């Protein structure tokens, strides 16, 4: 399409902006159903043990309590909430309520009562006696063969190697080899809306689940597996989502609420408070990475060896998938032809890990990008120069045979960033003596666009122009607040040349939405679902033209479509609206102005970004202030410029937290010591820099209007860029994230010691 | 206890437990569900309402403390079907993503502008320092407040 774009690229507010600013929008926690009961979970107060006795009689006796459930009166079926589509092999180790608690926060019971206050009161009346078991918090201890097994088959449950070339041989040829060991923290997603869910069951046992989820069909699948109820009896309706970031990807509350409602035959609401949200949902996976990079004298990377230890926490969930996903990224950013990636995944008695914005990319890039700065330093090279020598070029191949990189524009990002940030000047600026040390850092990142090459990646969409000339696009879209629906609407509007306000996307509902293979996961939505929206709109456009030509009695080539009207370019006076054309087409040809089709993802190109940051470190307190921040991204094409900027700015906020302040901590017995926002520090407005955003819009061949992913990709380079800036400011080598003031002070002290 | 107070210009009389939190009174007794709970401990600001011209976390206010007060919630910003200027600038600037922090954020910004018609960027950041947003990185929220200030027409209260 070479004409000027009308809708693509513009900022158009999110589809439900007005309802959101007026407070009228309904999240699941705001919903009330007739006769609704309220549930409260009872969570383990110890990190590892077996229940010896559980006394629920006091809770049951409380007026207003309807029922109490625990391992004795609930299904014993094991499931893995990570499974999103039939056919994936998973380790099943989670059940609704356990008798063997494996972390502080494990689910042991639920109380259902007439009000949330009564349910809460009753939950506190449940008495449990435990036989305590050894607690393992450190993944390096968990890895050992003789560590006390958290699950029957031991704690080391997965390992994987991905390799290209001959890294062992090549490693020996290095002019120098730099090794680092970097730890990344377990963090909390901190969506402002906590997990919440309502399940309702009708008289014949059909369950309806209302949930702010990322994949309706996954919720249906997991409820079905956990409860052994046929899928067709389970309907899942996605509700307005108050943020997710991967946290609401795995169905956690849904099978529980469904079970409670199914058993009691009444609607049941389950809403977590913030502490429950932090401890009993999912976290960003903690990792310990070691990396060795060998370079020649000129600064060409000749081999690299990476080892990642993945701490899955107490249950498997996506521990295997994320270990693999991280590895794949390491072959897509630099031209390294001899490289090995090894991952090992273990259980610990800590909070369960899961998907979190970037799905391992922020972790693996923290390890590799901090290391690369250390390599540049050893070579006495500018880290930007060093990277430019080694970064991938457009249309490079993945050396492991993975999906092609596509129009990979990371070099453009780095060059643009260097110029806009005035990197050369800032990097070489002489260090000032005194209390406040300034430094600059940068890092690159790569992230994917869907599941092509790994898992089924397709979506079925249905688009129809109705008799009034408005269009309905049906599909299982999961707008979690980032503007998915409007993105799709803009694509359809552009193709049909129909105002965006005339396009409507109904609620996402397993009963009425056509099937989608993976939901909002894997950064697939813009690229895959957007690609599908474009395709189905093109089919409807073709129909408008074909029937337009018949009705107007002209050549198809002469049919003009514009702003909801169709006419013959040779007789401009007769304009008929899309609605009128739809009516005539129905009447005369028994055909509707619509199309339904299944779209298979055509590829999985890589999205890139480079972040540049300037920090000031107070060497007396170890506090870091971010003075300037620039994010440059290669996203092919921004469908909605405002959303893209907002995604990047939000992603950077999350990345700063990972770099500087966010960490879920435990005491020696595994009790969470950061279970509330007063102890878990999310970056607030005064600490947040203004993030300057620059886009490299070199179209991706396979993406809709050239677009590829951004929301996850944007959080990938943040943490390493900041750590690199601190290392530059202080001439230290921080290896544990987040760089809390104490850790920075320790690094300063050990440097001073070294000098003495 | 008998709680008498003014919510969005309407005088209310309710019989409530004096220990009941204001957020629960608003949401559960008055059906004003626009006010959100994000933490229940005064750390996230999702529950912010305006009490006698000051932005307050309604999760920390008990019924007894709300007596005779004038309260504005997010539902009270819109006047005669027309959005408040700040609500409009939030939309214009893309300050809304998931929307969960938005009601509280708007109430903090509204309270700021009630007291200071021309705040600096620093003052805006400070005014929303107790409001966490996980989606936007705050930049567009600050721009929205700036736009409201610059567009003028911001009547005190
Ligand atoms: S809910 Fe009141 S401050 Fe978080
Ligand atoms: S818009 Fe989602 S938390 Fe602010």
Query: In percent terms, what proportion of residues of chain B is strand?
Result: 5-15%
Main interface: chain pair and counts: A-B, 56 and 53 residues
Name of the top-level CATH class of the largest domain in chain A: Alpha Beta
Number of helices of chain A: 19
Strand-pairing-aware structural class of chain B: alpha+beta
Taking the sheet with the most strands of chain A, its summary is: 7 strands, mixed
CATH fold descriptor of the largest domain in chain A: Aldehyde Oxidoreductase, domain 4
Shape of chain A: globular
- Helix amount of chain B: 25-40%
Number of strands of chain A: 28
Known CATH architecture of the largest domain in chain A: 2-Layer Sandwich
What does this entry look like structurally?
The complex is a heterodimer of chains A (756) and B (157). Chain A has 756 residues and is of the alpha+beta class. Helices cover 28% and strands 24% of the residues of chain A. In chain A, strand 26 and strand 27 (624-634) form a beta hairpin. In chain A, helix 10 (361-378) runs parallel beside helix 18 (718-730). Chain A is globular, with a radius of gyration of 27 Å. The model of chain A has no long low-confidence stretch (mean pLDDT 97). Chain B contains six helices and five strands; from the N terminus they run ββαββαβαααα. In chain B, strands 2-1-5-3-4 form a five-stranded mixed sheet. In chain B, a hairpin with a 2-residue loop joins strand 1 (2-7) and strand 2. In chain B, helix 3 packs across helix 6 (139-151). The chains are: A alpha+beta (756), B alpha+beta (157). Chains A and B meet through helix 1 and helix 17 of A and helix 3, helix 4, helix 5 and helix 6 of B. The structure holds FE2/S2 (inorganic) cluster (2 copies). One FE2/S2 (inorganic) cluster sits between chains B (96-102, 133-136) and A (192, 243, 481).
């Amino acid at each position: 399409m070479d004409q000027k774009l009308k809708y693509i690229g513009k900022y158009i507010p999110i589809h439900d902006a007005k309802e959101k600013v007026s407070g009228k929008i309904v999240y699941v926690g705001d919903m009330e159903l007739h006769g609704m009961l309220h549930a409260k979970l009872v969570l383990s107060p110890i990190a590892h043990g077996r229940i010896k006795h559980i006394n629920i009689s006091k809770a049951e006796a409380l007026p207003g309590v309807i029922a109490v459930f625990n391992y004795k009166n609930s299904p014993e079926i094991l499931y893995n909430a990570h499974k999103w589509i039939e056919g994936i092999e998973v380790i099943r180790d989670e059940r609704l309520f356990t008798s063997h608690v494996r972390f502080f926060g494990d689910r042991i019971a639920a109380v259902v009562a007439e009000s949330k206050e009564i349910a809460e009161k009753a939950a506190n009346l449940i008495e449990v006696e435990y036989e305590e078991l050894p607690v393992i918090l450190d993944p390096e201890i968990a890895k050992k063969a003789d560590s006390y097994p958290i699950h029957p088959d031991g704690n080391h449950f997965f390992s994987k190697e991905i390799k290209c070339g001959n890294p062992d041989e090549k490693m020996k040829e290095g002019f120098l080899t730099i090794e680092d060991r970097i730890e990344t923290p377990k963090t909390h997603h901190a969506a402002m809306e906590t997990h919440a869910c309502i399940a309702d069951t009708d008289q014949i046992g059909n369950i309806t689940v209302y949930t702010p989820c990322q994949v309706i069909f996954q919720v249906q699948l997991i409820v079905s597996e956990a409860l052994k109820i046929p899928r067709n009896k389970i309907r899942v309706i996605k509700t307005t989502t108050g943020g997710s970031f991967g946290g609401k990807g795995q169905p956690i509350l849904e099978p529980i609420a469904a079970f409670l409602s199914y058993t009691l035959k009444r609607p049941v609401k389950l809403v977590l408070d913030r502490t429950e949200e932090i401890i009993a949902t999912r976290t960003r996976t903690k990792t310990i990475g070691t990396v060795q990079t060998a370079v020649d004298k000129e600064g060409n990377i000749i081999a690299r060896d990476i080892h990642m230890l993945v701490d899955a926490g107490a249950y498997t969930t996506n521990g295997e998938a994320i270990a693999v996903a991280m590895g794949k990224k390491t072959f897509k950013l630099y031209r390294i032809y001899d490289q090995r990636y090894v991952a090992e995944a273990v259980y610990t008695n800590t909070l369960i890990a899961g998907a979190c914005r970037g799905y391992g990319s922020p972790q693996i890039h923290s390890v590799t990008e901090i290391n690369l700065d250390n390599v540049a330093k050893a070579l006495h090279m500018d880290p930007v120069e060093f990277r430019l020598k080694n970064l991938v070029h457009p249309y490079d191949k993945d050396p492991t045979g993975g999906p092609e990189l596509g129009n990979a524009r990371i070099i453009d990002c780095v060059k643009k960033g260097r110029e806009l940030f005035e990197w050369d000047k800032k990097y070489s600026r002489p260090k000032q003596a005194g209390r406040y040390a300034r430094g600059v850092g940068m890092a690159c990142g790569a992230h994917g666009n869907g599941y092509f090459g790994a898992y089924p990646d397709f979506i079925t969409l249905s688009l129809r122009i109705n008799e009034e000339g408005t269009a309905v696009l049906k599909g299982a879209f999961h707008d979690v607040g980032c503007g998915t629906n409007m993105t799709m609407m803009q694509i359809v509007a552009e193709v049909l040349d129909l105002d965006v306000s005339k396009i409507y996307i109904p609620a996402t509902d397993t009963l009425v939405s056509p099937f989608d293979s993976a939901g909002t996961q894997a950064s697939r939505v813009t690229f895959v679902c957007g690609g599908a929206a474009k395709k189905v709109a093109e089919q409807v456009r073709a129909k408008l033209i074909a029937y337009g030509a018949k009705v107007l009695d002209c050549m198809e080539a002469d049919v003009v479509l514009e702003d909801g009207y169709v006419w013959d370019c040779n007789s401009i006076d007769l304009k008929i609206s899309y609605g009128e054309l739809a009516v005539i087409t129905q009447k005369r040809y028994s055909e509707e102005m619509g199309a339904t089709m299944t779209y298979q993802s055509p590829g999985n190109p890589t999205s890139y970004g480079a972040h540049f940051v300037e920090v000031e470190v107070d060497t007396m307190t170890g506090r870091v202030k971010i003075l300037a921040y620039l994010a440059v991204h290669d996203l092919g094409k921004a469908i909605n410029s405002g959303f893209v900027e907002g995604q990047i700015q939000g992603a950077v906020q999350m990345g700063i937290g990972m770099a500087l302040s966010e960490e879920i901590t435990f005491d020696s017995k595994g009790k969470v010591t950061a279970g509330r926002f007063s102890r878990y520090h999310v970056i607030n407005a005064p600490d947040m820099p203004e993030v300057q955003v620059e886009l490299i819009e070199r179209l991706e061949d396979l993406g809709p209007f050239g677009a590829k992913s951004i929301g996850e990709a944007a959080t990938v380079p943040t943490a390493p860029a900041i750590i690199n800036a601190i290392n530059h400011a202080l001439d230290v080598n921080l290896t544990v994230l987040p760089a809390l003031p104490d850790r920075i002070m320790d690094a300063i002290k050990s440097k001073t010691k070294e000098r003495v | 206890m008998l709680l008498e107070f003014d919510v969005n210009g309407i005088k209310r009389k309710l019989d409530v437990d004096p220990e009941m939190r204001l957020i629960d009174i608003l949401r559960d007794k008055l059906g004003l569900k626009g006010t959100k709970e994000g933490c229940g401990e005064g750390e996230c600001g999702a529950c912010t309402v305006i009490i006698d011209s000051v932005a307050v976390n309604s999760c920390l206010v008990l019924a007894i403390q709300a007596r005779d007060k004038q309260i504005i919630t997010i539902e009270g910003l819109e006047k005669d079907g027309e959005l408040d200027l700040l609500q409009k600038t939030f939309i214009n600037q893309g300050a809304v993503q998931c929307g969960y922090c938005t009601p509280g954020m708007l109430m903090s910004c509204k309270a700021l502008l009630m007291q200071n018609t021309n705040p600096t960027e620093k003052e805006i950041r400070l005014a929303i320092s107790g409001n966490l947003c996980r989606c936007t990185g705050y930049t567009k929220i600050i721009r929205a407040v700036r736009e409201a200030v610059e567009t003028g027409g911001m009547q005190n209260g």
